[in-house]
Design brief:
The complex is a heterodimer. Chain A folds into 2 domains: 77 residues; 96 residues, Alpha-Beta Plaits. In chain A, strand 3 and strand 4 form a beta hairpin. Chain A has a 4-stranded antiparallel sheet with strand order 1-2-4-3. In chain A, helix 2 crosses helix 3. Helices cover 57% and strands 22% of the residues of chain A. The radius of gyration of chain A is 39 Å and the shape is rod-shaped. Chain B is an alpha+beta fold. Among the domains of chain B are: 157 residues, Nucleotidyltransferase, domain 5 (2-Layer Sandwich), CATH 3.30.420; 92 residues, Nucleotidyltransferase, domain 5; 141 residues, no CATH class. Chain B is 35% helix and 22% strand. Chain B contains 16 helices and 19 strands. Classes of the chains: A alpha+beta, B alpha+beta.
Chain lengths: 177, 590
C-alpha cells in the first residue's frame, strides 16, 4: 500500500512546481511592470530633455527679445495722440521750420488695419506742409520712434500758394496696449 | 527520533511531513539495505537456537568468511530489555568490518511442529495462495480450528512427491522470539543502521541442505532423520528424492523420542516404503550418539548412514543450517537434484521468514519507490530553487540596471515644472512675436516717399501732380491672419523722353524691378516683390496733354504744365495674402 505516494507527488512536486512557477511568474511580472514604468519614465525623461534643450534655446531667444518687448510695451502703454504730438514737436524742432509745418492733427476711431485685429488700436490723421525730403526725414524719424504707426493713407499735392512746398495728409493706424 | 504514526491515521500534509522527516533523519533513501532481505545483505549474523545451546556466527558474504559471533545468552534472547549490550557489540563489529547493514538470521532449532491443511486444499496450483494465507489468515487454511494466530506463525511446505496424501503441510513456530526481533528493529532505527531480521526453521533449512550431503542415489526412497537436542524431525523422500512427508517427534526431556522406532515403521508402511535408506544427521553438540547403531539393528535391511554436511572452517559439524541457508545456486552445486530440492531453495519454501515484521510497522515507512520519488523530488527542489533564484537574481539585476539609470529617478513633477517654464517662455515668445508682427514695417510713409522719389528721378521728364497711397486689410473675418492691399495712384505730366520709361515701368518686370530697388535702398521687406504670397500689378495710362503748348527746350520750365505733351495716370496695386509673413495677426495679444 503506497500511503505516501500521493502526498509526495502533491507536496514535493506539484506544490513546489506551482510555487516556483509563481515566483518566476511574479518575477517576470515585476520585471515587466518595471520595464513598462521605465518606458514611461524614459519617454517623460526624453520629452523633458528635449523640452529642456528647446527651452534653453527659447529662453535665450526670449531673454534676447525681452528688453525690446519691455521697451515696446512701455511705449505702447503711452497715450498715442499725445506721444505723436510730442514726438512731432521734438522732430520739427530740429528741422528747418520753413520746410515743415504741422497744419492739422486729428485722432480718429479704430479703423484701418485695426479693424481686422482684436488688438487695441486707434487712428490718427496728421496734416503737414513742407518740402519732400524734409517731410520724408520727419516721417522717418517719427516712424522710427513709434514703430506702432502703420501708414494707412498718404496724400500729397502741391500747395496752392507756395510752389516749393507740398501738402501731406498722413493717416496712421497706431497699435496700442 | 520522533514517534512515527501509521500514515493511514495522518492527513496528507502530515503524511508528507513524516515521509520527509524519514528522508532527512534516516538513511532509508541512501541505503537500499533497509528494503532488502536479511539473506541478501553482504554482512550477516546467524543465531542458532537448539534448546540447550545458542550459537552465533558472523558471515561476511563477500569474503565467504564465517567467524564466531557475539555472545548471546538465553536470558538476552528471552528478555528484550537486556538486548542492548548484544546489539551494541553487533553494531560495533559490523561497522568495524565496513558493513553498512546487517542481516540478522535466527535459526530456530528448539521447536518444530506440523499442522495439517484442511482437506479441501488439494490443488497444487493453489500453493501460492495458501502460502499467502498462511501468513495473513492461517485459521482459514488449517484443519485445527483452535489455533491462536498471535502465538504462533505458520508457513506452508509443499509435498512435491507424487502420491502424497496431501499437497502440503504447514510448519508452525511460536512467536517466542518476536520481542527479540522487535527490540533489534527498534535499536536499528535508533542507530540508523539497517538490521534486517529473518527467522528460519532450522529443520527446514537442514532438509534443504540434504542435497549437498547425500551421495547420488541408490534409487531407493530414503528418510532423513534430523536429530536435534529437543526433537527429531523425519523427512520421507521417495525414490526420486521428492518429499512425501514430514513428521516431528519431541524428546520430552529424553535424548531421543520414545516412540521413534514405531513411528518410523508405521510411517514407512503407510508410505509403502520398503527398507528405505536411513540418513541420520546429528544436529546438536550433545545428541544421542548410539542412535546410528540402534537403527542398523532395528532396520537391518536398510542402509543406515550418518551424514556430514560440508562446512567451512569455524562452523561445527552439528551446526550446518547457517551455512546451508547462506548457500546460493551460484556458490555451490548440489550432489543430488530433484524437484523438491529445487523448489525448497529457488522458491524459498525452506527459508520462509517465520517472524516477519508486522505489516502495520512496515507501512509506517515509505516504500523504496516512494523514498526514491521523494529523494528525486528533493533534488528537483534544488533545480526549482535554482531556477527561482536565478529568475529573482535576473529580476533584481534588471531592476538594479533600471533604477541605476538617471531616467528612473526622474521626477515627472520636474517635467511638469519644466513644461510650465517652457510654456511661460513660449507665451512670452508668442507675445513678442505677436507684437513683432503688428509692429512690422508693412506700411511706412517714409518708405513710400522713397519709392516715389526713386520712381520719378530728377530730370526724368516727368512731374507728379497728385499722389495718393492707401493700405487696407482684406475683409476676411475669422481668420488668424489677414492679408492686406496697398495701392498707389499717381497722376502727373510727362515729356517724350519719359514715355519709354513709363512703358518699361508698366510691365511686370518693370514694376518688380522698381520695388526691388526700393526694398534694397530702404531695407523694407514689404517692397520685396519675389515673395510668392504677394502680387504686384501696375497700370499706366498716358494721354496727350490738352494744355500742351510746344516751346523750345530752353524755354520749357520744369514746373510749367504746358511744356509737357502728355499726362499719365499710374495705379500700382500690391496684394499681400493671409499667408504672407507681413499679414496681420487678428488675435488680441495677452
Amino acid at each position: 500500500m503506497f500511503y505516501y505516494r500521493r502526498p509526495i507527488v502533491l507536496f514535493a512536486i506539484v506544490v513546489p512546481v506551482i510555487l516556483t512557477g509563481a515566483m518566476i511568474g511574479g518575477g517576470i511580472s515585476i520585471k515587466s511592470k518595471m520595464a513598462t514604468s521605465f518606458e514611461t519614465k524614459l519617454t517623460s525623461y526624453k520629452e523633458y530633455e528635449t523640452g529642456r534643450l528647446s527651452g534653453l534655446e527659447l529662453e535665450t531667444q526670449v531673454n534676447k527679445q525681452r528688453p525690446l518687448l519691455e521697451q515696446w510695451e512701455a511705449m505702447l502703454k503711452q497715450e498715442t495722440a499725445s506721444t505723436v504730438t510730442s514726438n512731432l514737436r521734438q522732430i520739427t524742432e530740429h528741422l528747418p521750420s520753413k520746410e515743415i509745418q504741422q497744419t492739422a492733427f486729428e485722432p480718429l476711431e479704430k479703423g484701418g488695419f485695426g479693424a481686422v485685429s482684436a488688438q487695441k488700436s486707434s487712428q490718427l490723421r496728421i496734416a503737414l506742409r513742407g518740402t519732400f525730403r524734409t517731410m520724408q526725414r520727419a516721417l522717418h524719424e517719427l516712424e522710427t520712434r513709434m514703430p506702432q504707426l502703420q501708414l494707412q493713407d498718404l496724400k500729397i499735392d502741391t500747395a496752392a500758394n507756395q510752389a516749393s512746398l507740398l501738402n501731406f495728409q498722413v493717416t496712421y493706424t497706431a497699435w496700442e496696449k | 527520533m520522533a514517534t512515527l504514526s501509521h500514515p493511514a491515521s495522518l492527513n496528507p500534509l502530515k503524511q508528507f511531513a513524516q515521509a520527509y522527516h524519514i528522508l532527512r533523519k534516516t538513511s532509508r533513501a541512501s541505503n537500499p539495505a533497509w528494503y532488502q532481505e536479511a539473506h541478501e545483505l553482504p554482512f550477516q549474523v546467524h543465531i542458532r537456537v537448539d534448546g540447550p545451546q545458542i550459537t552465533t556466527f558472523y558471515f561476511d558474504q563477500k569474503k565467504n568468511l564465517w567467524s564466531a559471533g557475539p555472545t548471546l545468552t538465553e536470558e538476552t534472547l528471552n528478555d528484550p530489555s537486556k538486548i542492548a549490550p548484544f546489539a551494541n557489540e553487533v553494531l560495533r563489529y559490523s561497522r568495524s568490518q565496513g558493513a553498512t547493514a546487517l542481516g540478522m538470521i535466527l535459526h530456530v532449532a528448539d521447536e518444530f511442529a506440523t499442522a495439517e491443511l484442511k482437506p479441501e486444499f488439494d490443488s497444487p496450483a493453489a500453493l501460492n495462495d495458501l502460502r499467502e494465507k498462511a501468513y495473513l489468515e492461517p485459521s482459514t487454511i488449517l484443519e485445527d480450528a483452535s489455533i491462536q494466530a498471535d502465538q504462533s506463525a505458520w508457513r506452508v511446505l509443499p509435498y512435491p512427491a507424487a502420491g502424497s496424501s496431501s499437497i502440503a503441510t504447514t510448519i508452525a513456530l511460536s512467536r517466542h522470539y518476536a520481542p527479540f526481533f522487535e527490540a533489534l528493529r527498534h535499536l536499528s532505527e535508533q542507530a540508523n543502521f539497517p538490521i534486517i531480521t529473518r527467522a528460519l526453521s532450522a529443520p527446514l533449512v537442514a532438509i534443504m541442505g540434504l542435497s549437498h550431503a547425500i551421495a547420488p542415489g541408490s534409487g531407493r526412497p530414503f528418510v532423513a532423520i534430523l536429530q536435534y537436542p529437543w526433537l527429531t524431525a523425519l523427512a520421507f523422500f521417495n525414490e526420486h528424492a521428492d518429499l512425501k512427508l514430514i513428521r516431528t517427534l519431541q524428546h520430552r526431556g529424553l535424548r531421543r523420542p520414545t516412540n521413534f522406532r514405531n513411528t518410523m515403521a508405521t510411517t514407512n508402511a503407510s508410505l509403502e516404503f520398503v527398507d528405505p535408506d536411513l540418513f541420520l544427521i546429528p544436529l546438536g553438540s550433545n545428541v544421542d550418539t548410539v542412535l546410528d547403531a540402534d537403527l542398523r539393528i532395528t532396520f537391518a535391511n536398510s542402509r543406515v548412514e550418518t551424514l556430514q554436511f560440508p562446512l567451512p572452517e569455524g562452523v561445527p559439524a552439528w551446526c550446518p543450517e547457517p551455512v546451508i541457508a547462506a548457500i546460493t545456486a551460484a556458490t555451490d552445486v548440489p550432489h543430488i537434484t530433484s524437484h523438491t530440492f529445487s523448489i525448497l531453495r529457488d522458491d524459498h519454501w525452506a527459508t520462509q521468514n517465520f517472524l516477519q515484521t508486522p505489516k502495520e510497522l512496515v507501512e509506517i515507512y515509505p516504500t523504496r519507490s516512494e523514498m526514491k520519488l521523494l529523494q528525486l523530488a528533493r533534488l528537483s527542489w534544488m533545480a526549482m530553487a535554482a531556477c527561482a533564484l536565478l529568475s529573482l537574481c535576473y529580476v533584481a539585476y534588471s531592476a538594479f540596471r533600471l533604477v541605476s539609470r538617471p531616467e528612473w529617478s526622474f521626477d515627472p513633477s520636474t517635467a511638469q515644472a519644466a513644461k510650465g517654464r517652457i510654456s511661460n517662455f513660449g507665451q512670452e515668445k508668442a507675445k513678442a512675436n505677436s507684437w513683432g508682427n503688428l509692429l512690422e514695417d508693412r506700411s511706412k510713409a517714409w518708405a513710400s516717399l522713397e519709392a516715389l522719389a526713386i520712381m520719378f528721378p530728377k530730370d526724368g521728364g516727368m512731374i507728379v501732380k497728385i499722389y495718393t497711397h492707401g493700405a487696407k486689410p482684406e475683409n476676411t473675418a475669422g481668420k488668424a491672419t489677414v492679408g492686406f492691399i496697398k495701392e498707389w495712384k499717381i497722376s502727373g505730366l510727362a515729356r517724350d523722353e519719359a514715355l519709354d520709361y513709363l512703358n518699361r515701368l508698366n510691365t511686370r518686370e518693370g514694376i518688380a524691378a522698381h520695388f526691388n530697388e526700393v526694398a534694397r535702398v530702404t531695407g523694407n521687406s514689404a517692397y520685396n516683390p519675389s515673395a510668392t504670397t504677394r502680387s504686384l500689378v501696375i497700370n499706366v495710362r498716358t494721354q496727350e496733354n490738352t494744355g500742351y503748348k510746344p516751346a523750345p527746350v530752353e524755354e520749357s520750365h520744369l514746373l510749367d504744365d504746358s511744356t509737357y505733351p502728355f499726362t499719365f495716370d499710374l495705379t500700382i496695386t500690391q496684394r499681400f495674402e493671409a499667408t504672407d509673413p507681413l499679414a496681420i495677426n487678428s488675435a488680441k495679444i495677452p
